[in-house]
Amino acid sequence: MTIAAIQFLVGLERRRKVGLVLILDAMIIALSLYLAVALRISTFDLGFYWQGFGATLLGLWVAGTALSFLTAIPWVSMRAFNMHGVRQLVVFSVVLGAGFFCYNYWGPWLVPRSAPLIMIPVLLVGLVGVRVLLGQALARRAPRQDGQDRVLIYGAGAAGLQLANAMREFAGAEAIAFIDDNPSLRKVLVGALRVYGPGDIGKLVRTRGITQIILAMPSTSRARKQEILRGLSEYPVTLRTLPHFLNFVTGEPLTAQVQNVSIDDLLGRLPQSLDLPEIATAYAGQNVLVTGAGGSIGSELCVQLCSVPVARLVLVDHSEFALYSIERRLRASHPQCEIIPILVSVLEKDVLKRAIVDHGIQVVLHAAAYKHVPLVEHNEVVGARNNALGTYVTAEACAETAVARFILISTDKAVRPTNVMGATKRFAEMLVQDLQKRHPGTVFSMVRFGNVLDSSGSVIPLFREQLSKGGPLTVTHPEVTRFFMTLGEAARLVLLAGTFAKGGEVYLLDMGEPIKIVDLARNMIRICGLTERTAANPDGDVAVEFVGLRPGEKLYEELLIGENQIATPHPKIMCARETCPDSDICTEALSRLRAAIAAQDPDAIRALFVETVDGYTNGALRSEPKEQTDKELTPVAATLV
What we know:
Radius of gyration: 36 Å
Largest sheet: 9 strands, mixed
Number of helices: 20
Strand order of the largest sheet: 10-9-8-11-12-13-18-23-22
Number of domains: 3
CATH superfamily of the largest domain: NAD(P)-binding Rossmann-like Domain
Number of strands: 23
Structural class: alpha/beta
Strand content: 5-15%
Shape: elongated
Distance between the termini: 69 Å
Oligomer: single chain
């Protein structure tokens, strides 16, 4: 059958297709009756039985048409023909043959009495066989088009088989073969596809033009999935995963539920469990205020607090749009929690104090800060005002209104900072530590952690944007590393760390092993199904370019200034009791900071940080990667353990 004929049949109206099915089945019934009689009398010349054959056939056509409508045979799709359709045809064949036998046995004797019994299996084979053949023809109704994806399905189980069946109806991709770890399935045909082992993937990619690999193992553990995905990331194909069967109730087609592999699947570490009952115990029913509520970490803290739930959540942010966005999101998802938005800067102490008193605030989480290193490096005055002075104003407002707990969200860049942003955060930590000495009625604590995956200022959204434009992906230095953690994980551990505090502690979140940014970039290229353009591969899709360290950027981040770290009840949270200058020194430093900000004097701010912040030097690292010395490339203290 030609492609044009098949496409013509596919495009017919349903009622015309029903008519064609009835005609086709009538022809099969006629052929089955003829073969049954011929087999019974052992000759293809029916002779004496021709007259009875004609009369019987007319009766079978009438009875078969009625029975066909009764059992909905014409509406069984040939392209999706399966065991359900076979069962319907078995019923049809047996009922029609049994009725024919009874009529021929007790009624007029038209054909040999055993012919109806012979006709039943012949008719069934004919009906099923024709539908299988037509289904195969319809599934291959068009040649492979340019740009059509060729897919390997990793997992030859129930999910993989269902995906393969669904892809038969999907014009955008073609399933080529299964991959499975089970050696007993090697070379076995599952459906119409051969099963291969993981060691055959490279050959299949080269010889069969594979463009995608879909991991169809929705019930497998996350650890196992990550292990498989890391192994697959070396191939120049797009990696996708199939969600759990419970997601199928959404009503989406199976092919529409295939998901792109997220970058955190290839980071080499599992997020920590977010099931921390201690948080609910500590925050349930509390009145909590969050500054910077519209930012990445601030908004996630708000979501987690509403999930506890707290009794009242006050959102503080100076960005109107950010505040509007998080308020609307929380009201929609957590109507049981009282949400109060306040549009104000953290520098407005009187407004903050009034909000704390009016709403009975018991806990304050201070996440408001400018965090983009190069921007703060060139806007020292604004950065110092918001990050250092804003933190002090907020913390002092809490002390003066007898707030029970104040938690400062800090950063690993505060440890021996080489940039103004990190210096402002360490200066803020020292001011908070000093406030603890003078206001013991409020428990002050700080929590440091590294980069948060997919936060507004992280490198991953930048890489995604660069990939969408065809690259290149820009990396500052081949040796630059960073710690990474998911938003949900960071927020939950911050909340938990705040419950451990007795006063003045700095808590450090164990971020796992540091990750090279260049490895992150190359992984993102691979999981998008692209190849890196290098000198050895000039025809690659996307290049990685090293642009040199930005002003104030470090090769390696640290979480601990000294060696004094103490274990806490949670293995991923450590405590560091770091030294703080005397109160007189802090008071003088704060006075100098206020004066420098008022005078708009960035040099005075930098000079102050040189004197007061351990490890800070006036100026930023601006050298290109090739100019780095071996000494500069040596990490100081990259991990907690």
